[in-house]
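Hi everyone,

Forwarding the result from last night's run.
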Amino acid sequence: RRRRRRRQNRLLNRQELLRLLLLLSKSMFGVAPFVKSVASVSRTSALAGGLLLRSASTIPSRRVAALEILDQTLADIKDAGTWKSERVITTPQRSHISVSTSDKPVINFCANNYLGLADNSEVIEAGKEAMDTHGNGLASVRFICGTQDIHKGLERQIADFHEMQDTILYASCFDANAAIFEALLTPEDAVFSDELNHASIIDGIRLCKAQKNRYKHKDMSDLREKLSAAKDARLKLIVTDGVFSMDGNIAPLDEICDIADEFGALVMVDECHATGFFGKTGRGTPEFHNVMDRVDIVNSTMGKALGGAMGGYTAGPQQLVDLLRNKARPYLFSNTLPPAVVGATSKVFELISSDSSRVEKLRANTERFRSGMEAAGFTVGGDKEHPICPIMLGDARLAAEFADEMLVRGVFVIGFSYPVVPHGKARIRVQVSAAHSEEDIDFAVEAFTQVAKNKGVL
C-alpha cells in the first residue's frame, strides 16, 4: 500500500509539472510544446521561459495558481492592445541607431537625449578617466565610505548651475522624489501636487504623513482654493513638474510662485524634462519663466539631456540638503553613484555651462518639426516651445501599429497608451534632439504623413 501511494504521488507531481510547463510555454510562445508522455517530463529538467524546473516535487501548487492569475492578466493586456515590447538597440544612443529587427539604421525620435550628449566623445572620455582615477565603484553608501572628491565637486557644479546653495546626489530622480517628502514633511504639514505630476512624485507623496492635496492640472484657482483650506499647516509645499512629460506642456511657474508668496508656501519643481536644454541657457523652467530666485527646490535627473546615463539630485537650501543627507532613505540605503557617471556628468555641466549652441539648435529643430507636422494636418500636443511633441492618435492599438510602420520606414518612435496616458488619449510622443539634422526632421515628417494616409488618419 505504501509503495502504491508513493507511485500515485509521483504521478500527481509529474502531472502538476506538465501542467505548469504547458502553461508557461503557452504564455511565453503562444503554443504548447509537443510532449510524448507525462513520464518523459519526470526524466528531464525542463527549461521554459527561463525558469529551470528540476523536479516536480519542488513546484508548490500555490505557485501554479499564482502563475495562472498572472497569465490571465498578461492576456488581458495583450487583448487591450497595450502590450509593451522592448526593441533592442545594437549601437550607442544617438540620432541614428541600429536595432536588432532592422537591417538598416533608423532615426531615433523617442530618446530623452535632447542635447545629443549620450555619445559625445568628450563626455565618454571623462567617464573613462574617472574610472582610471577613482575606480569602478565605491561599494558603499555615501555616509559610510562612499563619498569621493568628485561627488562633492559635481554637487557643487549642479548647485551653481541652478543658483542654489547645495545639492545631494541620488541614483535616480525617482529616488530623489521618493526621498524628499517623507524626510521633510510631518502630519502638521501640507503638500499640494498637480494631478498630472510624474509617478515618482505621486509615490513619494504617498510615503509621507502630510496632508495631501491634489489640484487640477495647471489650475491656479484650484491651487489657491486648496491652499486657503490648509492655511494653518506648519509647512506648505507646492510641487509640480516643470514640463509634463507625456503632454509636453509647461507649468505656469511664475503664477505658482505668486500664489506661494501669497500663502507662505515653498515651491518645488521636477525639472527632468527641462534641465540642460530648456530656457534661454538651458537652466530649465525657472529660467524660462524668469523665477530662478523664487523656486525653493529643484529635483532633476542626469539620465536624460545630461548625458543620458543615470543619477538624480535635489538642489536647494543648505538646511534642506543637510536634512536629506541625514534622513532621506534612498540616499542612506543605496550605493553611491559610480565614478564613471560622476565624471561624465561633470563634463556635461562643464559643456552646457559655457556653450548654449546646442540649446539654440534644439529650439530651431523643434520649431521645424512642429510646423511641418501641423502643416501636414496632425494634431500636435504640448506647448510649442518644448521638444516633446505628442502626435495625438486616440486609439491604443492604432498608436502601436503606427509606431511599428514608422520603424519599417526608418523612424524609431513608440506609441504611448494606458496606463502611461489616460484611456482614449494614446499618442506617439516624438522627442526632438539637437543632434537631428534638418534632413532628419523632414524625413520624419514625410514618414508620419505617409503612414497616416495609409491608415486613414489623414
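The CA atoms of residues 392 and 427 lie 5 Å apart.

Cheers,
N.
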